[in-house]
Hints:
Elements: H1 8-11, H2 16-47
Amino acid sequence: MQSPAHGPLSFARGSPLVEMGRRSWGARQQDEAISILMVGQGTRDGLA
């Protein structure tokens, strides 16, 4: 995937790709947390 010139160290130095990946990963985590909360709320409403 990475060429020798772009090793892990040079890649981890805040490159746009890393930033984009981090941002999309964070957004995905947020979406999952929200959906889990909504499912939990729906289950609670169903039980109540």
